[in-house]
Amino acid sequence: MSVLELRGLTVSYGHGAGAHRAVDAVDLTVPAGEIVGLVGESGSGKSTLGKAAVGLVAPSGGEILLDGEDALRRRRRGERRPIQMVFQDPYSSLNPRMTIGEAIGEGMRGAGGRASRRAEVARLLELVRLDPALAGRLPSDLSGGQRQRIAVARALAARPDVIIADEITSALDVSVQGALLNLVRELQRQLGLSLLFISHNLAVVRYVSDAIAVMRDGRIVEQGPTERLLAHPTDPYTRTLLESVPRFAPVTEVPR
Amino acid sequence: MSATNLATPVLTSPSRGRGRGLLRTLLGTPLGIAAVTSVAIVLLLALLAPVIWGDAADAYHTDALRQGPSAEHLAGTDSLGRDILLRVLVATRLSVGLALGATAIAVVLGLLLGTLPAVAGRRVGRLVAAAIDVAVAFPALLLAIFFAVIFGVGEVGTMVALGVAGGPWFARLTLTLSASVAARDFVAAARVNGVSRGRILLRHVLPNIGEPLAINATLGAALNLLAFAGLSFLGIGVQAPSYDWGRLLNEGLNGIYVNPWAAIAPGVAIVLAGLAFNLTGELAAQVIGRRTREKAPREPLPGIAGAAASATAPALPVATHGGGDDGRETLLDVRDLWVRFPSAGRWVAPVRGVDLRLHAGESVGVVGESGSGKSLTALAIAQLLQEPAAVSSQTLRFDGRDLRASSARQTRAALADSLAMIFQDPMSSLNPAMRVGPQLAEVATAHHGASRRSALAQAVEQLAAVRIPDPERRAHQYPHEFSGGMRQRAMIGIGLMGTPRLLIADEPTTALDVTVQRQVLELLSAVRAEADSALLLISHDIAVVAGMCERVVVMYAGVVVEDLPVAELLAGPRHPYTRALLAALPDMETPRERPLATIPGRPPAPAELTGGCPFAARCAFASDRCREQEPPLASLADTGAGHRVACWHPQAGAVGAADVKSEPETETEAQR
């Protein structure tokens, strides 16, 4: 189990006066074996933060520490990547020309010969509750929910310590979303993963997370244990966000 | 995948299908067969003609110099008495070979240059891209002539010159195509896994740009064929004693008054070969661009004849149709609405016999998962579905008018005023090149004959009505200067410019943030109440619908499975699907310790329907009857007429864990 720490993480786009700080000096810790939910609206910088944590975006300041060590500097070619990511859109995150088995196998490191790789792919497919026979299929043969499980299996192939899940259910229908959330939660416990769960859906974040951080305009405006933060939000933005969650009650008042 | 996004441009869908499928699709049309066959003939001639007729074409016939067509020499002879037709046929190899060679050089050079930015890193990449941009700005033929002088006049020199001149163009194409592939998440996933740049290029980028590149190479070959003929004609290309079509054309032109066929024959050859390559390339591009588009099958449309015959039949008694007969005027009356699409030579029906009634001023929500047919139903009602979709219904009346009886133009004119449609993505439904004010004003000038000035004043008023701050200034801005929420408000404003009796909103807030969603929904219900318009709200979000509507219509696999007042949705719906949907939806009270309720499996595709209840395979209460007989939508003994359910085993009471079937251990079946 590993701790992911972001210290003063800053990501800016552009230069000089036109520079925009998408992530602005963010301190965030994902404790070992826990799920931290990151909520915010579009443009809040939550996805950029996730991309910076896996090295897809270069930070302009701050540190990304995995168990106290710089997580990105120690990367060398062919080495295991301990921080993995699952993306939002399962239709874009799988190469349409690569079989499921090839896609999953790409993340494996030092898995030895072909037979042992195939066995490992089968094990991962079973782990995400899919038929190992799907390894030879192309992504176009699968439904959205099945594809997203493949994306999870691919992330797990690298035997990561930390997974960044970026809006992994927002492209899925409600009836499929539940099964994926259950799976992710179960795997996280079983494998002792630390998980940063990014989503705009507060109900989903609440369900999976041990702690929640609320992000707005590149900054974390409030963070704390899930129950406490939702029951007693201190920041006005958190309160607005909570009030905006659609509920089963007719809209009665009409603001002027 | 929804059937509404049928056409996909070449650049964004380089991924569909594989090469063999492309050839098969090409050969499916007469034009395609003609194109592919003529390319095959040209290539075959290029291979065989010199072997068969090579010597004969070089044979001098001193007794027949510069002769016109005869039985012996079909296209006549040249100044040395050589047979023109044979020479044209033999010249195929050199002409086509050189054009293909030049194209190959251009493609290889283009691939090398175009992929360099992806491999070499950012700084070098930018330099290369800038250099390509500059090179593309020069006319290729001019470059070719320039290079031909450098590489030396002659066939090889000219081929290299044409190839090098075409290189930047292919480099730019490669650059653009690979940039669009590189932006996709699977490339990001490979980068996260530490896959090297070279491998990403080989495994992820190139296979996904191969198809459009091959097509453009075919088109490029046609261009090079013409260019080479031109250069040879000018004396830069092929030199005597070698000959290609351009050179033959040049020689033939000298004696055009003696034997016009000496010039016409090579000219025709150039045109035909160029056409063959061009047509093949264009058709292949079309096939890739619209692979999902299918032609109507020969099989007649089921049920159409019957529906047309019953158009004049008396309306069914109102009582069987629910919706609460409280004396309110019926605004929209849809009965037995079918939407069909051609697929693999058959008709499939994503919407199967939908009944829907709206009273004036009523708000009704339609919920369902993707593929349930909810958006198609809305589009069919608004008469916005086009070929190849086929819409049929027993009744389709709106505001006292039979939408099926009147002509398309009449219908459009009638609907423009009284029906407004709001779409999910306001960026694509607003004109990006037009200021927002005039877009609203357009409605007033087009439909109400208002003058430009008064129309613009109305537009500003309307922007204020949809709570856009500083409407005067905002009216002069373009859509891209608006935020997402503001664009959607402007869209609602456009919808309300007329005096619509019905607003159809298809996922109006799905693209918006929750805080903005709430504002837009509140605005929508406020302006609707002011104008007393009815609302048909299509959404996948049952909570949004419950908050906005009086009545909810639940769709599944193309049919309405339940139609009920919102109060009863909250108290406990009757159809197992509606109940499972509610159980599976996490809200702010869902217990966190327990696993979420899920619905195993997935909805059946329209082609997989077997005749029973479409939800049977996923239902916890399904019996043999469910699997054999599709239940009709009807009110139950203990529900009012306003609550209809299509189920053999309706449930009752509060929604609980018993409403979901347990998940199977692993999913074995693929999608198709």
Question: How would you summarize what this structure contains?
Answer:
The complex is a heterodimer of chains A (256) and B (672). With 256 residues, chain A is α/β, with parallel strands linked by helices. Chain A has eight helices and ten strands.
Ordered list of secondary-structure elements with their pairings:
The complex is a heterodimer of chains A (256) and B (672).
Chain A: E1 4-13, E2 20-30, E3 35-39, H1 46-54, E4 61-66, E5 69-70, E6 83-86, H2 100-105, H3 114-127, H4 144-157, E7 162-166, H5 174-191, E8 194-199, H6 202-208, E9 211-216, E10 219-225, H7 226-231, H8 236-244
Parallel strand pairs in A: 3-8, 3-9, 6-7, 7-8
Antiparallel strand pairs in A: 1-2, 1-4, 4-5, 9-10
Chain B: H1 19-26, H2 30-58, H3 84-120, H4 122-137, H5 140-151, H6 155-182, H7 185-192, H8 197-233, H9 245-254, H10 261-289, H11 304-309, E1 330-343, E2 346-359, E3 363-367, H12 374-381, E4 390-392, E5 395-398, E6 401-402, H13 408-418, E7 419-422, H14 426-429, H15 436-448, H16 452-465, H17 471-474, H18 484-495, E8 502-506, H19 514-531, E9 534-539, H20 542-548, E10 551-556, E11 559-565, H21 566-571, H22 576-584, H23 624-628, E12 634-635, E13 644-645
Parallel strand pairs in B: 3-9, 3-10, 7-8, 8-9
Antiparallel strand pairs in B: 1-2, 1-4, 1-5, 5-6, 10-11, 11-13, 12-13
Helix pairs in contact in B: 1-10, 2-3, 2-10, 3-4, 3-6, 3-8, 3-10, 4-6, 5-6, 6-8, 7-8, 8-9, 8-10, 9-10, 15-16, 16-18, 18-19
